[in-house]
Write a structure and sequence with these properties.
327 residues, alpha/beta, D-Maltodextrin-Binding Protein, domain 2, 2 domains, 5-stranded mixed β-sheet, 18% strand, globular, binds beta-D-glucopyranuronic acid
Length: 327
């Protein structure tokens, strides 16, 4: 498995550095990741680990456990609260279940483009979003790209919002996803990422929604027939460390961790961009019909009820206004 390879590399680096600099007390850090080892998020996390190990001269040895080996996302979020894991990449909208203000990045169609999204999360709003994670024992160090999520189905194509109504659509286990699918009248069915493939295969669900790289990494394109590019959600993903770990770091180490995270995000965003294109090609090549949505406005209009449900306190409203004001 890939992470053992890079773990070995990190340990060897640490050993080599110790030989030069004298013995170092290495602290192992456990990282949670939902994706397979060659996914852009996974490669970004590996980079983060390598840079931290290298630049702290092996005093910190982060290793990432891929493919939800340390549990599903909900369990991982929980483990962060008691330092069972030290770092992770979490879908920002899913974090809304533990830090309500984060729901704002999971509002349907909240970002106008990828550029707008990164201008928001890389700027002062991103810093404030990170502060909101403190009660969940997390600090966000950088943000990864996760493209845009769109619906896909096995039997009945989705061309208009009305086509979603009544379909049993899998969504991740978090309020923003349920509210978004329900706003279109779907029978929203929360379930863990790993369970979606067999559920599509056996007809337990009629469809799901995700970005092209995830459709391909989970082989959903082998069982679906239609992919509707409505792009209802564009949710950034946060590279987080526990607040416990963060607070224990010297200022110098904090800078190393932050720079490593930002550099890993630069790599991840570049890989993401490439993967988005190859993934869509693979989906087409598998014979899936791609349904372009020339006018997304009917989908946007249908999201009113999701906004009403998700904007539960004035703070989220302030965040929303601030996001809209960013260019
Ligand atoms: C992927 C996201 C991941 C989600 C997953 C899902 O990167 O954070 O957990 O979708 O649908 O695209 O569960």
């Amino acid at each position: 498995m890939k992470h053992f390879g890079s773990l070995t590399k990190i340990l060897l680096t640490a050993a080599a550095l110790a030989a030069v600099a004298g013995p170092v007390e290495a602290r192992d850090l456990r990282g949670w990741n939902v994706h397979v080892p060659d996914y852009p998020v996974s490669l970004g996390m590996e980079k983060f680990g390598e840079l931290v190990a290298e630049r702290t001269n092996g005093r910190f040895v982060p290793s990432t456990f891929h493919s939800a080996e340390l549990g599903n996302q909900q369990q991982a979020v929980e483990q962060m609260t008691f330092d069972g894991i030290d770092f992770a990449v979490f879908n920002g909208g899913q974090l809304g279940d533990v830090a309500p203000a984060l729901k704002v990045v999971g509002l349907p169609y909240v970002f106008r483009s990828t550029e707008h999204m990164f201008n928001v999360v890389d700027g002062e709003v991103g810093k404030r979003l990170s502060d909101e994670l403190a009660p969940a024992n997390m600090v966000a160090l950088a943000w990864y790209d996760a493209g845009a999520r769109s619906f896909y189905t096995v039997e009945k194509p989705i061309k208009t919002p009305a086509d979603v109504a009544g379909q049993k659509i899998r969504v991740p286990n978090a309020e923003i996803f349920v509210a978004t699918a329900e706003a279109l009248g779907a029978n929203a069915t929360p379930m863990a990422f790993a369970e979606v493939f067999p559920s599509l295969q056996t007809g337990v669900i009629d469809g799901a929604e995700n970005n092209p790289p995830s459709v391909v990494s989970t082989r959903h394109h082998e069982v679906i027939k239609y992919y509707t590019l409505d792009e209802h959600l564009r949710v950034p993903e946060a590279l987080v460390v526990t607040k416990t770990l963060w607070d224990s770091l010297s200022d110098e180490d904090k800078q190393i961790f932050r720079e490593a995270a930002v550099e890993s995000a630069e790599l991840q965003r570049k890989l993401w961009h490439e993967r988005e294109e190859t993934a869509l090609e693979a989906i087409k090549a598998a014979g899936v019909e791609i349904i372009e949505v020339a006018d997304k406005q009917p989908f946007v209009d249908a999201m009113d009820s999701a906004y009403k449900q998700l904007i539960t306190d004035p703070k989220i409203e302030v965040f929303l206004k601030d996001i809209q004001a960013v260019q």
